[in-house]
Design goal:
The protein is an alpha/beta fold and 421 residues long. The chain has a domain of 265 residues: Alpha-Beta Barrel (TIM Barrel), CATH 3.20.20. Helices cover 37% and strands 16% of the residues. The chain is built from 14 helices and 16 strands. Strands 4, 5, 7, 8, 9, 10, 11, 12, 13 and 14 form a 10-stranded mixed beta sheet that branches. The N and C termini lie far apart (63 Å).
Length: 421
């Protein structure tokens, strides 16, 4: 009699080597950086190394430094290969390095799942849930436009919505659509040289609490509200703001201060119980370890791309769980649907899952480039049971695109002083 366990032994006992790896740069309106690794048996895996505004850096890092070392390795040794590229480099960490390592790691988990005939979430320990809560981005140049945008996303089935609103006297703001832009499907445009946004802290602090009040009056307290300050406040200002908005029961307040000064979160914690989300700029467990141990925030925002792939993100997730911190992985449109797929598998598994940002554009062009059976319905993300990550890159489609220079906006105060983006 032939048992399933014997099948697994056979699958993992034969020799398999990485034969080649190719990097693709570009996509529909985005500079996606995708690696596709192929074994000598023809099994392939894909990973995402996209960094908004700096796409050629991880692409070059992969092509010139990592791929030559990768050829001939056993793709099933995900942990050893991750350590090889992390510990083997004298200069560690940083977004470019970790994005390159992360892309390889995603691709290797993809291959491992295909060899085993299992979706990645099964290799991580199996599912903790059937589907994963996601949130959309509502925006408006004024309150009424914002309320209309929220209404639209509620009608699409979203139960959690991030809100960003224009501030009177501030012509442009982070994540805010202008009067001539689509407030229902708004994605910040990063084409061309950096645009300048003007910031005024006092105007923001006076206006935003009233926005939350109007949202609760219109939609009640069942709607999960998220808001991103995007590093714009000083610690005392952030503490006062968090305390003032407590009655509106935010699902989270994101990046209230720059992540550079991690001790600033202590002051916020001393004055408010509003849940804090932070970490989308972190690329290592060492960036957040001390804050986690002190339980200074509630949701960790790292991404599979910038934080070194599935292997490292799993480690961060486990450590967060020890300190009552839930996941809220970063899901910007600058990371490709491959990154979203990797995080979807982690979300399906993670016992401390919180929520997932959902901003990957489901356009026909994007779907053609990254074919997948993953799908979103009624504010929930469903992972396919295809072996591996369940997503691929169409190489013929990929050749239609090339790198186009993109830049984030920059922020200045009204007197011209540079400020935090």
């Amino acid at each position: 009699m032939f048992y399933w366990s014997e099948t697994i032994v056979l699958l993992w006992s034969y020799a398999v080597k990485i034969a080649s790896a190719e990097v693709f740069v570009g996509g529909p309106g985005k500079n996606y950086v995708t690696i596709k690794i192929r074994t000598d048996e023809g099994v392939t895996g894909v990973g995402d190394a996209s960094i908004n505004g700096r796409g050629l850096l991880p692409a070059t890092y992969l092509k010139e430094y990592l791929i030559p070392c990768l050829i001939g390795m056993d793709p099933r040794k995900t942990e050893d290969i991750w350590q090889y590229f992390y510990r083997g480099a004298y200069f560690r960490r940083g977004p470019v390095t970790m994005a390159a390592i992360g892309a390889i790691d995603m691709a290797l988990w993809d291959i491992k799942g295909k060899i085993a005939g299992l979706p990645v979430y099964q290799l991580l320990g199996g599912p903790s849930r059937d589907a994963c809560l996601v949130y959309a981005h509502a925006t408006g140049s004024d309150v009424e436009a914002l309320l209309d945008s929220i209404t639209h996303y509620q009608a699409e089935g979203y139960k959690a919505i991030r809100i960003q609103c224009g501030i009177p006297g501030m012509p442009e703001g982070y994540g805010v659509a202008g009067d001539d832009e689509d407030t229902k499907h708004f994605i910040t445009d990063f084409t061309g040289l950096p645009k300048t946004e003007i910031w005024d802290t006092e105007k923001y602090l006076r206006f935003m609490p009233g926005v939350f009040e109007k949202i609760r009056e219109r939609f009640g307290f069942d709607l999960k509200i998220l808001h991103d300050v995007h590093h714009r406040l000083r610690p005392r200002e952030a503490a006062a703001f968090a305390k003032e908005v407590e009655p509106y029961r935010l699902f989270w307040l994101e990046d209230p201060t720059p992540a550079d000064d991690q001790s600033a979160l202590k002051l916020i914690r001393q004055h408010s119980t509003v849940p804090i989300a932070i970490g989308e700029v972190f690329n290592s467990i060492w960036d957040c370890k001390d804050m986690m141990e002190q339980e200074l925030f509630d949701f960790i925002r790292v991404s599979a791309t910038i934080a070194g792939g599935i292997t490292h993100l799993r480690r961060i997730t486990d450590f967060a769980d020890m300190h009552h911190i839930r996941t809220g992985f970063h899901g910007p449109p600058s990371h490709s649907p491959i990154s979203m797929a990797a995080q979807a598998h982690l979300n399906r598994w993670a016992p401390n899952f919180g929520i997932q940002e959902y901003l990957v554009l489901g356009t026909p062009e994007c779907d053609a480039l990254f074919p997948s059976d993953h799908h979103m319905k009624n504010g929930m993300f469903y992972v396919s049971d295809a072996p591996g990550l369940g997503i691929d890159i169409d190489e013929k489609e990929a050749k239609r695109y090339s790198h186009q220079a993109h830049y984030h906006p920059i922020v200045r105060l009204e007197d011209g002083t540079m400020w935090n983006y």
